[in-house]
Design brief:
Blueprint lengths: L6 E5 L6 H11 L3 E3 L3 E2 L14 E2 L2 H9 L3 E7 L3 E6 H9 L3 E5 L2 H10 L4 E6 L3 H9 L6 H15 L7 E4 L3 H11 L8
Parallel strand pairs: 1-7, 1-8, 2-7, 3-4, 8-9
Antiparallel strand pairs: 3-6, 5-6
Helix pairs in contact: 1-7, 5-6
């Protein structure tokens, strides 16, 4: 299948470090356009509309969903709704940018339905043991919550075959460079 140049979707299990890798790419690869999500949650101090998120009212978000304006959307923790607007992704691709969409597995599956020709990259932990360490390492959750996270992690890891490529997050810079290479860009010398 012909892959869509320009759109790469990065997903992986919880606590694998997707945010860390995409932040590294944003800070070091200005040629990559990191997709900005729309959300119904209120801006936090310092967050700028259109830079960190597109802040929408619940009514506005509902209207956009009804009009089919989202590549993917989800209600997170039963509270706020987040989604990726087709218009912003299409505009960035039209402008010739390399777009990176960092989302959860549920979102990645929705994008695959809508745009199977995008490139899908699974960010994997170096080992199950390491993922367990990251999942429970913070020591802030109860034993039940840790167990729930481990079960989720196990299910999420099993989704790896649905993806075109796997990048192992053993070192943030190395993982970011590998991802950038998969996007057809040249990694910077360090």
């Amino acid at each position: 299948m012909h892959k869509l140049p320009g759109l790469t979707v990065l997903a992986g299990p919880t606590a694998v470090g997707k945010g860390t890798v995409s932040t590294y790419i944003r800070d070091n690869y200005p040629e990559v356009w990191l997709s900005v999500s729309a959300t119904t949650r209120a801006p936090r101090p310092g967050e700028v509309d259109g830079v960190h998120y597109f802040f929408k009212s619940k009514d506005e978000f509902e209207r956009l969903i009804a009009e089919g304006e989202f590549l993917e959307w989800a209600v997170v923790h039963g509270q706020n709704t987040y989604g990726t607007l087709k218009s912003t992704v299409n505009q960035a691709i039209a402008d010739g940018k390399s777009v990176l969409l960092e989302i959860d597995l549920q979102g990645a599956r929705q994008v695959k339905e809508a745009l199977p020709e995008a490139q899908f990259v699974f960010l994997a932990p170096p080992s199950w043991e390491e993922l367990v360490r990251r999942l429970v390492g913070r020591g802030t959750e109860s034993a039940e919550e840790q167990q729930r996270r481990l079960e989720t992690g196990k299910v999420e890891l099993a989704a790896e075959p649905e993806f075109d490529h796997t990048v192992i997050n053993d070192d943030v810079r190395r993982a970011a460079d590998e991802l950038v290479s998969l996007m057809g860009l040249t990694p910077h010398p360090h």
